[in-house]
Design brief:
Chain lengths: 226, 224
């Protein structure tokens, strides 16, 4: 397929955008990356995602697909000669979908809560919530990965992408708050997984460097709210 | 081995209804376990330790939670009467709208129910804006699924029953037939589907529950 057939509207630091990039990389699909400027929304974005006006949007053959995990499933269903992203067994697929939804609906908000918490007590409570989530995800890794390298087994799958796309922000939070979220002793499975995921060819050039994200956080904190 | 299917639900859960509809549309037999959420059964807590909620589908002893995840599982396990289209782009659209219902529409409708005065005045146009997206998406099809109901219809289906009740309880008209002709017609067509018609919760009981929810949310907060 011609590379201009697939466009991704996004921004580098967005984990949701990273999900789409990783999925396309896994399938070896070329795409044109159209960077949205921070603080403004392009005409194309507003036209392609009028309901949410958000990135990522993938445009394939002129047709827009929105919502990162829906895009990942679409990519899996269209490019079937690449490695499969969702597992083949329906129950394993359900578990991958369940935990991916958990990451988005429950876990990510706790990480955001940690970054915005003010005062020692609030920070401690927020940290506790994040750590509880990490324990659940460690357990999910054991159950879904079944002793293999990734949540998806031997290769990166749906849940690896869903959770792994947040690794940049996990590291950033660890650095800025001087805490360990993925702990070798407490979450050994996730610890090894994070190294393998982050260094994978489909991932390593996608997830931004922690230092860049730290800079971005400081810059955003300095700006008045738009 | 015959499939062993159990559904954990409450009498009033909109999300559990989705599962009931899907199972019945596929002609599947299942056992129903009604939960009292104020006294959750040990089995429910065992099958859904993460959220401790209904619905849960248990298939040959293996539990699945979260209604849209369960719907995808049912669709992938039993091929008859497909709920999702075959084309990947159409599937993405069906998933998009189901997600929209759960993440935007539902809360905006609840906001109308549980507020009054200025807050409610602000909530109503937000709910209507979300309904307008649905109205536009219907584009002259009988159902989102085409000639028969599909994934998006099932996700949206609770509105056909709950919205009129919310309108009755709040006295606010959300679905004007002239402003939302497609949704109005879709609701009628949806309610005519035998599997749907057969499974609505008892009307008066539901009205009382919705009324109770509104009153509870509006009651002045006492000191604990």
């Amino acid at each position: 397929m011609a590379s201009s057939d697939v466009k991704v509207l996004g921004a580098g630091p967005s984990p949701y955008v990273n999900r789409v990039q990783i999925a396309l990389n896994l399938k070896s699909v070329d795409y044109e990356f159209l960077e949205e400027k921070f603080g403004s929304k392009s005409e194309l974005l507003l036209k392609s995602n009028p309901v949410h006006k958000k990135i990522p949007v993938m445009i394939h053959g002129g047709k827009p697909i929105c919502e990162s995990l829906i895009i990942v499933q679409y990519i899996d269903e269209v490019w079937t000669d690449g490695p499969s992203i969702l597992p083949s067994d329906p129950y394993d697929r359900a578990m991958a979908r369940f935990w991916a939804a958990y990451v988005d609906d429950k876990w990510w908000p706790t990480l955001r809560g940690l970054r915005s918490a003010e005062g020692e007590e609030a920070k401690a409570a927020a940290l506790e919530q994040v750590k509880e989530g990490m324990v659940l995800l460690e357990d999910a890794f054991t159950k879904c990965g079944k002793g293999k390298d990734f949540f998806g087994g031997d290769t990166i799958g749906y849940l690896d992408i869903a959770f792994g796309s947040f690794l940049g922000w996990v590291r950033t939070t660890e650095k800025m708050a001087d805490i360990k979220l993925i702990d070798e002793a407490k979450t050994p499975g996730l610890f090894g997984w994070a190294e393998r995921f982050g260094s994978n060819a489909a991932v390593k050039d996608v997830i931004p460097e922690t230092d860049k994200l730290v800079e971005l956080v400081k810059m955003m904190a300095a700006k008045p709210k738009a | 081995m015959a499939d062993d299917l159990k559904v954990f639900r409450t009498w009033s859960s909109r999300f559990a209804l989705r599962i009931i509809w899907a199972l019945q549309l596929k002609g599947l037999e299942y056992e129903t376990i009604f939960e009292d959420l104020s006294q959750k059964s040990p089995l429910l807590l065992q099958y859904n330790p993460t959220y401790k909620k209904v619905p849960v589908l248990v298939h040959n002893g293996k539990p699945i939670s979260e209604s849209l995840v369960i719907l995808e599982y049912i669709e992938e396990t039993w091929n008859q009467n497909p709920l999702l289209p075959e084309d990947p782009y159409e599937r993405a659209k069906a998933r998009f709208w189901a997600k929209f219902v759960d993440e935007k529409l539902l809360q905006s409708v609840i906001d109308v129910l549980v507020t009054e005065g200025k807050k409610q005045e602000e909530a109503v146009p937000r709910a209507k804006e979300n309904l307008k997206y649905i109205e536009e998406e219907l584009k002259g099809n009988k159902f989102f699924g085409g000639a028969t109901i599909g994934f998006t219809d099932i996700a949206l289906g609770w509105t056909a029953y709950w919205l009129p009740i919310i309108e009755e309880v709040t006295g606010i008209k959300l679905i004007d037939a002239d402003k939302f002709p497609r949704i109005s017609e879709w609701m009628q067509n949806f309610c005519d589907v035998p599997v749907i018609k057969a499974n609505w919760p008892p009307y008066d009981k539901m009205v009382a529950k919705i009324q109770g929810t509104r009153e509870k949310c509006l009651a002045p907060k006492g000191t604990d």
